[in-house]
Structures are given as C-alpha cells and as structure tokens.
Amino acid sequence: MQNSRGGAGQPVWTRALVGWHIVFWVLLGMTLALSFLGHLGAVRQSVYVGTVVVLAAAYQFIGLPAIRSRRAFPSYTYRLLLIASLITLIGIYPQSVFLMFIASAQIWLLCEDLREGIGLSLLLVLGVGAAQLWSAGWGWSAFWQILPWMLVSLVVSLLFGIWIEKVITQSQQRAELIEQLESARDELAEAHHSAGVMAERERMAREIHDTLAQGMTSIVMLAQAGAAELSQGGDPAGRLAAIEQTARENLAEARALVAAFTPVALSEATLTEVLRRQAERFAAETGVDVQVSLDLPDDEVAALPQAQQVVLLRSAQEALANVRKHAAATQVLITLGLSSNRVWIEIRDDGSGFSPGVASGGFGLNAMRGRVEESGGTVQIESTPGHGTRVQVLIPAVQEDV
Fold this sequence. Notes:
Blueprint: H1 2-5, H2 10-35, H3 42-69, H4 72-92, H5 100-109, H6 114-136, H7 140-231, H8 237-259, H9 264-268, H10 271-286, E1 289-294, H11 298-302, H12 306-327, E2 331-339, E3 342-349, H13 363-374, E4 378-383, E5 389-396
Parallel strand pairs: 1-2
Antiparallel strand pairs: 2-3, 3-5, 4-5
Subcellular location: Cytoplasm
Pfam families: HATPase_c, HisKA_3
Catalytic activity: ATP + protein L-histidine = ADP + protein N-phospho-L-histidine
C-alpha cells in the first residue's frame, strides 16, 4: 500500500498518529504492569520485561521512522520484531494476547498491498497460537480450545486490514480530488487574471484612441493649417491658441487616465455641455457645421450614470473622428434622446458615406462596439456611398439614485 498512499495517503496516518501512540504505550504499560501480578518467577519476569523493552525500543527507533518514511526495509524489520516479541510475551504470559489489537493495526498500516498484509497477519496468528499452545503444554485438548480463537483472530485481522485499506484508499482519492480542485482553482484564477489584464489593456487602448490620439490628430491638423496661413503671410495666432488649448486638454486627459477613467470634461461639466464644446471645437478645426440636438431634458441627461455618459461621449468623439478622416462632410447633426427605457445618441453626416458590409472597420469602430456592448447596448451604422452616414448608439437607460 505504500505506492498507492505514498503522498496523498500520508496525511491520514499523520492525523491518527497521536492516537496510535497513546494506544500502543497504554497497552504496553498495562501488559507490563499485569505481568507482575501473574507470579511468573524471576527468570520469566526478567525475560518478559526485557522483551517489552525490546518491543518499545523497536517501535520508537524503527517503527516510527518506518511509518513516517514508508521505507520497505525498516517496515519489514519492525513488523518481524513486533511478531517475534508478541510470540515471546504471549508464550510467557498468555494474558498479553490483547496486544494483538495494536499489532494487527500496525502490520496493516505498514503494508504495501493486500497479499503482504494477509501473509503477515497469518504469520502473527499462527505464531501467537503456537505460543499459547506451548504455554498450555502442547496437548490436543489445548489445541482444540485455541483453534477457534485463532480462526476468529485471523478473520478479524483480515477484515480490519481490508477496512483500513479501503479507508486509506478513499482518503487518497479525496486528497487527489482536493489537489485537482486546488489546481483547477489556481488555473481559473490565472485565467481570470489574464482575462482581466487583457480587458484592462483593451480598455486603455480605447481610452487612448478616443482621447489622446484624437487630440493629437487635432493638433496636427491645426499645426498644418497654421503653417499654411503663415506661408501666405497670415496671422496664425488663432491656430496657435487652439493648439495650446487642445494640448492642455490632452494633458488633462492623460492625467485622468493615470488617476481614473472618467473623462476630465465630464468631471467639470454635463454631457450636454461637453458635446456642444466638442461640436464647436470640431467646427472651428474643420469648418464643418456641427449641431447638437437634445430630445430629452438636460437634467435627465445629467442624471444618467457616469459610466453611461462616458460611453455616449466616447461614441460621439469616435464618430466625429471618422467624419474628420473619411467623410468630407459639410454638416453633422448630433442628437441625444431617450426612448423605450434606452438612451441613444445619433451622429449623422452628409459626407461621402461607405458600404458598411464592405468596410473593414478600423480600431475606432471596433473599440466603439466593444465599449457599447460592455454597457449592454448596441451600435447601428447606416451608410450609402455618396449619401452620408448615420451612427446610432443605444444603451439601457438607468437613472442614478440621488
């Protein structure tokens, strides 16, 4: 049973070791004390005491290390000494037979398999039976009296050993199951950690794309326009002021990304005000006429959860960025509304349009979809080449508790 219990089964024995210690020493002490009441004579008493000392030393210095290490040689040595000691003790003082209880348990607890346990149990019962028969004078009458006890002892020992084997096997299976569960838990925790890291990276990428990248694009376009005015002898002071303002806003957004993910603009103004500022700046940078329309009161917009306002704002920024890059539009209408318990924002332009089924959809649109879907919403895009584009974002409307 060593191979089947070597690792997982060891804690079972370790937990019971204190109890087995106590039982062994109590039984051995009781046997020694009772022997002095048996009037064995000086020589037999001395042999008896010496055998008890040998058995105690064998248990302490061979048996216990074998139990802990599960090594074969000490295990066999101790069990053979145990059987020899019991034969001697019972031969001298037959009332010592109750030591078979602890001896049988120790034999089975150190066995490697059933065959070994059965063989050593049989050796123990035969040896003890022979010792009792010797003590009774080797008569047939004594033999027939001892035989039933020997058979009962053998059966009890075998049943006890099989029970111990099943208990240890079940304990090993439970230990292996616990180990598998702990391993699965660790793997699941690692998977959750990896998923969290990936989600955080994706979120950071969206935030950078929707804020810093678009702000840098505005700075580049303003710088190009200012350079063109300067080459024509104009005054680029207005463009420089716009570049400074955009750079300051980008710096504030970068600091906000480090501290949290709430846009600086929304921490200082309502969503409606921020959308109108975005429209004004976009119109100043591109010359496109941008209008903001509300289909719900401003106080209801302000009552929306901060996370939903962020989604609506980022969606509008991404749509405007696409208008800047691809649409060549002259007019843009941003509409914010509420219907059927869903808040929506729509960005419509009169630009060149595209075929949604053919377009690859860059990182911006994919990031927009990912952000909206995380909020339980949907993105609808309608566009036809030459007839503009309509982007609508719908998310469940949840009012913040005030």
